[in-house]
Design brief:
By secondary structure, the protein is α+β, with helices and mostly antiparallel strands. The chain has two domains: 232 residues, 2-Layer Sandwich (Nucleotidyltransferase, domain 5); 206 residues, ATPase, nucleotide binding domain (Nucleotidyltransferase, domain 5, 2-Layer Sandwich), CATH 3.30.420.40. 37% of the residues lie in helices and 25% in strands. The protein contains 16 helices and 23 strands. The strands form seven sheets. A seven-stranded mixed sheet has the order 17-18-16-15-21-22-23, with helices on both faces. Strand 10 and strand 11 form a beta hairpin. The longest helix is centred in the last third of the chain and has 27 residues. The protein is globular, with a radius of gyration of 22 Å. It starts with a strand and ends with a helix. The chain binds adenosine-5'-diphosphate (ADP). The site of adenosine-5'-diphosphate has 15 residues, from helix 10 and helix 11.
Amino acid sequence: MKKYLIALDAGTTSVRAMLYDIAENRFILTARQEVGQSFPQNGWVEQDADEIYYKAAYVLNRCVSSAGAEHIAGIGLANQRETVVLWDRDSGEPVAPAIVWQCRRTSAFCASVPKEMREKIARKTGLPVDAYFSASKIKWILENVPAARALMQKGRLCAGTVDSYLIFKLTGQFVTDRTNASRTMLFNIHTLDWDDELLDYFNIPREILPEVKSCTAVMGEVPLGGHNIPLAGVAGDQQAALFGQACLTEGEGKITYGTGLFLLFHTGERCIASQSGLISTIGYSIGDKTVYALEGSSFNAGSCVQWLRDGLGMLSESAESEQIAESVKDTGGVRFVPAFTGLGAPHWNSDARGLLSGITRGTTKAHIVRAVLESIAYGARELADCMQRDSGIALREIKCDGGASANGFLMQFQADVLGIAVNRPIERESTALGAAFLAGIALGIFGEGEIAGFRQAETVFRPSRDRARFEEWYREYQTAVRRALLT
Ligand code: ADP
């Protein structure tokens, strides 16, 4: 049997290929390349799709030359979501810069979508109408780039997310997977097909979109090192992380504590419509089976710690926040609301701004640092409450990853404020692990049932018995949020 799988992780700021040793169940090599972004106008964010491809090919080659192509069973792919690329089917050349998920250029159009259409879009796609998702970005390129229209008339135009562009360039196949499709706002997450009514509304012909396959499909073959290596196993990054964390049954969830915070909650084979403005999305699909998830995010998590470090100069490094927070038994009544750029779910207020309340003459740096870390956990609690209310499903355990999950104080506090265990794995590269697991299943190397056994817990943070204290603090936080919403 072949020894390795490669997980290709095409993120927003870098592209990485990680060599996964199947028998050892661990990554043994990472090749990484930074990817540039450009900001041609206020609120616009673009990337060079060609650069993403060349760097992906480069890191893949680094893994292949190190391991030997003959030892590689296949490549799994996880990628930044929603970003769009339009390209020429004959030459493979992009017709315009990729429009990145953060780009706000289509927000005026999105704001003009009538209420009835918004409701229809939410019902069919699980998404609120927003410039973040792919549909309005594709529409923008079709309307503003003459070369795109010319190619469309010749039947040569391809439009897709980063996964489909990379798969096309690497294998020649024009395909995507269901999780990536579910972020375009053109994909009906119930019928699992592009939705003709939405395609009409955005004026996007079906012919320019890729074929949608299961996450565990074999997408094509990549010629590398004299071998044809199957590219099999694809998911958007957050969904790949859900799978890599082995959240495989209803009621399991994962939180990624990066710059922002992403909570994905497995709702089984039922698609739950959120009453709180959260996103319903495809969690993953294995063969014909599709499972759904609710997704919520806070814009600010690790960024708050960065602010303590770089903005206030209170920390010399992010990790120091743990010991400083632990040096006090509580925040001394200080509450922090991290609304640097407004508040997302469930408040949806872009005008709100951050707030530090309850300051007295006795307040110290440690109280403030602790209040900031606590606020990250309270934000996740708000999302978790919405998800449980919307779905009627109890959250059983949180699996954590991302840079700030290294903070033991934060993880323990999260367990206390959620009242459930927070389980931190040894391997925190959940996204890459998800891509490797999906590839392994796609290629028949292991079955879905084996995945849970591959995940190894490092620490399980269990909630303390003193629930009342944390509930009281959480209520104080909610009061502070109400104040922030008044600003
Ligand atoms: P991203 O992928 O969004 O760039 P990462 O997962 O690399 O983010 O996490 C980086 C973030 O985590 C930074 O904002 C950093 O301040 C924060 N961070 C890293 N280590 C710690 C720590 N020990 N305690 C608190 N925050 C941390």
